[in-house]
Amino acid sequence: MDKMFRVIQGTYPYEISRGSPRIIAAPNDNQPFPVDAVAFEEDTFLVLSAETAVREPKESLMRVMTRLIETHPETPGSVLVRGKHPLRMLAIVHDLNQEPTWKNEWVESALRGIFQEAERRRLGSLALPFIGTLHGKLGKDQFVGILGDVLACMEFKHLRNLWLVVPSRTKRAVLKALEPGFQKRREKK
Fold it and tell me: Is the pLDDT of residue 27 over 70?
């Protein structure tokens, strides 16, 4: 029986030492702790999170068309907060009218906005997927680099736990970039 099971080194969850908040990287199906909010990758017209089921409208066609005409895009790099518990933080990092649909500075601004909103609302925990990598072609290593830069500039009083929702086939080497001293080691090489 003992030979049927063995510990596999290098699996998730993976804790990254970065001070506060404590960062735990784990896949979506392995939630390491309850969260107060979840971040989502979104576009300027909120199409990416739109419901896909077709339903009969509850209002007149004229009202639907009027609302459609009056709709204005959200600002790239901004964050919208929706729902209750857990909160949904919509990171506006795509403009579907542009190619590519995302920009590094939008991702950076949205990450900063997510953390500022978490602090403003006194949230203790947050789930953060690799924003810009799901619907855009931002590389995982690029996202981790942007995240590291943003975390280095932030001060946290309330956010204690950050669940970095790791996409499939993400190697630990990518996540090592968030560990203290990594930048110095990399610069010396």
Answer: yes
Average pLDDT (40-68) is 77
By C-alpha distance, which of 136, 109, 128 is closest to 178? 128
CATH number (3.40.220.10, 3.90.190.20, 3.50.50.60, 3.90.230.10) of 17-48+56-184 reads 3.40.220.10
**Proportion of the chain above pLDDT 70, given as a percent:** 82
Contacts 24+ apart (CB under 8 A), 166-172: 166/12, 166/14, 166/25, 166/26, 166/27, 166/130, 167/27, 167/129, 167/130, 167/133, 167/134, 167/140, 168/27, 170/25, 170/130, 170/140, 172/10, 172/14
As beta bridge partners, residue 162 has 23, 126
Q: Where are the beta strands (DSSP E) in 30-188?
A: 37-43, 79-82, 87-94, 125-129, 161-165
Place of tokens 């932030």: 154
Take residue 62 and report the two structure tokens written for it.
Answer: 């004229």
Which residues make Cβ contacts (< 8 Å) with residue 3, sequence separation at least 6?
A: none
- Does the bond joining 86 to the residue before it have cis omega, within 30 degrees of 0? yes
CA 50, CA 12: separation in Å to the nearest integer? 31
Residue 14 pairs in a beta bridge with 25
